[in-house]
Design a protein that fits this description.
About 60% of the residues lie in helices and about 5% in strands. The protein contains three helices and two strands. It has a two-stranded antiparallel ribbon.
Length: about 150
């Protein structure tokens, strides 16, 4: 009996242990987690990079605007120069007109000759032949360079 008492004495303890183990909450399986990377440095580096790109874009845009302003100024100067050139060409054409040349010559006291004498160089280079033009030059037989029509000038 002593054996059964000792068996009984030990039996409830074992059962009690088993009950305690069954009532305890189950723990999840543990695993090794890799060390965490420092994200603060990455965030700061990313912000610096984004800020640098934005700053470079603003600088490039400023350079483009400045270049465009210079280009506009140069184009305005070119237009102004072209207008001045056209005005000067008109002035030259007016000053070279035959009516204006005759007017300026008469204003300086020059008179139209009664007879016109044309000098034609000789082919041998030994002087010039004299030829008198007809007194009526309105026949239209003159060349544009002032020489008699048909012969050299």
């Amino acid at each position: 009996m002593a054996a059964t008492r000792s068996a009984l004495a030990t039996a409830p303890r074992t059962r009690a242990l088993r009950v305690v183990e069954a009532d305890a909450p189950t723990r999840p399986e543990l695993r090794v987690v890799p060390p965490r990377r420092p994200t603060g440095a990455i965030v700061v580096a990313s912000l610096v990079l984004v800020f640098g790109v934005l700053l470079a874009t603003a600088a490039l845009n400023t350079m483009l605007v400045s270049g465009q302003r210079d280009l506009d100024r140069i184009e305005a100067e070119i237009r102004e120069g072209e207008q001045r050139n056209q005005a000067l060409e008109l002035q030259v054409a007016e000053l070279e007109s035959p009516d204006r040349v005759v007017e300026a010559a008469e204003a300086q006291g020059m008179i139209e000759p009664e007879t016109v004498i044309w000098l034609t160089p000789r082919a041998d280079g030994g002087g010039a032949d004299v030829m008198t033009a007809p007194s009526d030059t309105s026949g239209g037989d003159e060349r544009a360079d002032g020489g008699p029509g048909g012969s050299g000038g």
